[in-house]
Specification:
The structure holds two protein chains of two kinds. Chain A is an alpha+beta fold. Chain A has a single domain, classed as Phosphoribosylformylglycinamidine synthase subunit PurS (Mth169, Chain: A, 2-Layer Sandwich). Helices cover about 35% and strands about 35% of the residues of chain A. In chain B, the strands form five sheets. Chain B has a seven-stranded mixed beta sheet. Chain B has a seven-stranded mixed beta sheet with strand order 23-25-22-26-24-27-28. The longest helix of chain B is centred in the N-terminal third of the chain and has 21 residues. The two termini of chain B are about 35 Å apart. Classes of the chains: A alpha+beta, B alpha+beta. The interface between A and B is medium-sized, with 15 and 24 residues.
């Protein structure tokens, strides 16, 4: 078993109302950042885990996302990176 | 003009029609109504309007049998919410609605948007929301998924209500395997208004503009009804219904803006865009005003690119309203909304021509003749036949159920019942709600048998409660329907309020099954019996059918939301005993009934027998006697006997107020001829445990009203514990032990959730909203 650091982005599902993102976008507009069209606020998780290889580490984190870390009904997730540590 | 298909619309095939939930006969009806083939947009509109949720096509004939009138009813069924006068020029608007399916799929957002929807139903009547209640039903807490649902639903309700600033003051929560996979989440809202500010959702005035107000329209919840029970697999990802996400801060702005609009005189009608969104709100407003409407979907503010008229019409995006303004007042309306950071766009117009027309720019995509789109739906009179096994279940002799060895000590049984989640303290849930915001809450969760909210500027208060024991309804729908109303009325009377009117949320299975429709019909008849006897008309509500999972239907659960009126807030009465030395009086009589009890279900896993009889005349007399005694200032505490029976009621009176525990010395030897467990744990109706310093006066009042009454004991200190003597048998329990059992059961059960993997599987969810 080797050690891996897996990072994952979790964001609101595309098309769902994102009140937090909307509030941030409105605040940016108020500050003069008129070029901003949309903002989405999500979470970034960094997980250190043991696995036989990088693919297995990623597979395990996907399972974690599906079962606990992300809510599949309201959120999408993507693996942002897998590095050996 | 006639509607023509848009480029890109799918062809109307029998498969597509079936996918929209229309039968072949219903499709024929649609074709003959139009005199041609419908467009895809028209099919979508009709599929929504003719769904049970909007059309009541299976339930309407039965619902019509319910009493809806009283001199103080200002608005009965058929509007966004019912309204009753409470005197002093003031009125109360209230309604209950289900959000069962959305909560099964996504408990947090489902419950939150349920709260949002019912809030809008109340403030669109011109009323300021002053209280929320929730009636919740879940499966057994032994299942991780159920604990996940409970956690999510409770947090969703709390977060939304707390953000908008409306106290959540009461409700009822029950747990039974019958609700596994199909939780019931019913939210009730109560609002206060001046009678002259009452506004109805009735479009009128040819030439008046129709305005979309509030949040933009996205693709949320489209097909919420038609695809509800479809397997949510990766393959049909594209048409996966998107759950609605609530935004309570926008709701708060919408609330303030709507109330300002209503008093401004610039508008003639306002309605929430709830289920089936723009479609149902516009069609219902047109029908009530008997006028035509035309709507241009290109003018509807959209959150996403490339939405089709079909999607815009059926979207269930939250925090939106439809307003009919006075002609020429458009800018005034926009100005009010701009003040609250909300947008308003004119999207259509009231027209003289009796049609319901939808355009996309110049292209007519839907046009229905006539203005009775909603009530001209098919009506069904489904077959009603009781399942043979139901009669067998009811006839079972439950006294033959063998006692467990531990039951030799009735204190053991009492402790187990106090731990039962249905009976145990719901503080784990209610402390997640803000129950005191707005500072008018006289009795909040757990203080009394009902919540009490004072009406500022008067000496009055209103009492609120939801109730329904689905197990009773399952065992005998007619009796169960009566009990649901009678218990709600008794609870409201226990705090000192005269029961005034009800709203109901009828949660049942598939009405096409004769045994389910039998349950529905009989339960509604039973509710009607009780409403007539107790003088509490029905002012509206909601029907939620198809609450089924692979194991079968949920218990038939017609939840009652009761509103009572207290003339003098000084007479508000709590449930727990007040002080040592007070005399304990039982109003009503004990019986040998044990059927349908929580005792049988929780201790023995038996759901059988006839539910307790419900003598409606007796209930009326009991309420009158109780109110006379409370109004005379003779009552220190009053608590009704419900799940768990007399012993549980007495135990709760001793320790429900954890900080001030008491004990009681009770003698029930007068009933020693009854089976002990029926006397202690049976759920005979029409009983109230009260404590008083003027027992003779209370007995005299009871006698005058023809209500059986007896002195059964004395309130003692906590150190004396609860002692119940029945002839030679004695139940002896420490108050502290009972208190622990009662107060710690739910937190303990829920803590397990954190330690275990959460099993989120949307495919497990079934049924409809």
């Amino acid at each position: 078993m080797k050690s891996f650091r897996v990072s994952v982005h979790i964001v609101p599902r595309k098309g769902l109302l994102d009140p937090q993102g909307k509030a941030v976008a409105d605040a940016l507009h108020t500050l003069g950042f008129q070029a901003v069209s949309e903002v989405h606020v999500g979470r970034h998780l960094v997980i250190d885990t043991a696995a036989t290889d990088a693919a297995a580490a990623e597979f395990a984190v996907r399972d974690m996302c599906a079962r606990l870390l992300a809510n599949p009904v309201t959120e999408d997730f993507e693996i942002a990176g897998v590095t050996a540590t | 003009m006639t509607a023509t298909p848009r480029p890109g619309d799918p062809a109307i095939t029998p498969a597509l029609v079936a996918e929209h939930g229309l039968t072949a006969d219903e499709f024929e009806r649609l074709r003959s109504m139009l005199g041609r083939e419908p467009t895809f947009t028209e099919l979508g509109i009709i599929s929504a309007l003719w769904s049970e949720h909007c059309s009541y096509k299976h339930s309407r004939p039965v619902l019509k049998t319910l009493p809806t009138e009283a001199p103080y009813v200002l608005q009965g069924p058929g509007e966004n919410a019912g309204v009753i006068s409470i005197g002093d020029g003031l009125a109360v608007a209230f309604k209950i609605e289900s959000h069962n399916h959305p909560s099964a799929v996504e408990p947090y957002q489902g419950a939150a948007t349920g709260v949002g929807g019912i809030l809008r139903d109340v403030f669109t009547m011109g009323a300021r929301p002053i209280a929320m209640l929730n009636s919740l039903r879940f499966g057994s807490l032994d299942t991780p998924r159920v604990r996940y649902l409970v956690g999510g639903v409770v947090k969703g309700i709390g977060d939304y209500g707390n953000c908008v600033g409306i106290p959540t003051v009461a409700g009822d929560v029950m747990f039974d395997a019958a609700y596994e996979g199909n939780p019931l989440v019913n939210a009730m809202c109560v609002g206060l208004l001046r009678e002259e500010d009452l506004i109805r959702a009735k479009a009128e005035g040819v030439g008046n503009p129709i305005i979309a107000v509030g949040a933009r329209t996205g693709r949320d919840g489209i097909h919420g009804a038609s695809f509800a029970s479809e397997d949510l697999s990766e393959e049909n990802e594209a048409k996966r219904p998107r759950v609605q996400v609530g935004d309570p801060f926008t709701e708060k702005l919408l609330l303030e803006a709507s109330l300002e609009l209503i008093t401004s005189g610039h508008i003639v009608a306002i309605q929430d865009m709830g289920a089936a969104g723009l479609t149902s709100s516009s069609a219902e407003m047109a029908e009530r005003g008997e006028v035509g409407v035309t709507i241009d979907t290109l003018k509807v503010p959209q959150r996403e690119q490339g939405m089709t008229p079909y999607e815009i019409l059926l979207s269930e995006s939250q925090e939106r309203m439809l307003v009919v303004a006075r002609q020429g007042h458009e800018d005034a309306v926009k100005k009010i909304l701009a003040k609250w950071d909300l947008t308003a766009e004119v999207i259509g117009e009231v027209i003289a021509e009796p049609v319901y027309r939808v355009t996309e720019g110049d292209h007519v995509v839907a046009e229905f003749p006539g203005v009775r789109l909603v009530t001209d739906c098919p009506q069904y009179h489904p077959e009603a036949r009781e399942a043979p096994e139901a009669a067998v279940r009811r006839a079972q002799d439950v006294h033959a159920v063998a006692e467990k060895p531990e039951e030799a000590d009735p204190a053991w049984t009492l402790e187990r019942l106090l731990e039962c989640p249905t009976i145990a303290s719901k503080r784990w849930i209610t402390t997640q709600y803000d129950s005191t915001v707005r500072t008018n809450t006289v009795l909040g969760p757990g203080d009394g048998d009902a919540a009490v909210i004072r009406i500022r500027g008067t000496s009055k208060a209103i009492a609120l409660k939801t109730d329904c024991n689905g197990r009773y309804v399952f065992l005998d729908p007619r009796v169960g329907g009566r009990i649901a109303v009678a218990e709600a009325a008794r609870n409201v009377a226990c705090v000192g309020a005269r029961p005034m009117a009800i709203t109901n949320c009828l949660n049942f299975g598939n009405p096409k099954k004769p045994d389910v429709f039998f349950q529905f019909r009989e339960a509604v008849f039973g509710m009607g019996d009780a409403c007539r006897a107790l003088g509490t008309p029905v002012t509206g509500g909601n029907v939620s059918l198809y609450n089924e999972n692979p194991q079968g239907a949920v218990y038939p659960t017609p939840v009652i939301g009761m509103v009572g009126l207290i003339d003098d807030v000084r007479h508000v009465t709590r449930a727990p005993f007040a002080a040592e030395g007070h005399t304990i009086v039982l109003l009503g009589d004990n019986t040998a009934e044990l059927g349908g009890s929580e005792y049988l279900a929780w201790i023995h896993g038996v759901v059988a027998g006839a539910p307790p009889a419900c003598d409606l005349d007796g209930e009326k007399r009991l309420i009158d006697a109780l109110l006379a005694a409370i109004g005379g200032g003779h009552v220190a505490s009053a608590h009704d006997c419900s799940e768990g029976g007399l012993a549980v009621a007495l135990a709760e009176c001793c320790m429900a107020r954890e900080a001030r525990p008491l004990g009681a010395q009770v003698d029930l030897s007068a009933w020693s001829a009854l089976p002990l467990r029926a006397l202690l744990f049976g759920e005979a109706q029409g009983r109230v445990v009260l404590s008083t310093t003027r027992a003779a006066l209370v007995l005299e009042i009871a006698k005058r009203h023809g209500v059986p009454a007896a002195i059964i004991g004395t309130v003692r200190s906590a150190s004396a514990g609860l002692v119940i003597t029945v002839g030679s048998r004695v139940l002896r329990a420490e108050t502290a032990r009972l208190s622990r059992a009662f107060h710690e059961a739910l937190p303990r059960a829920m803590q397990r959730a954190a330690a275990e993997a959460v099993d989120r599987d949307p495919a497990l969810a079934g049924g409809t909203r």
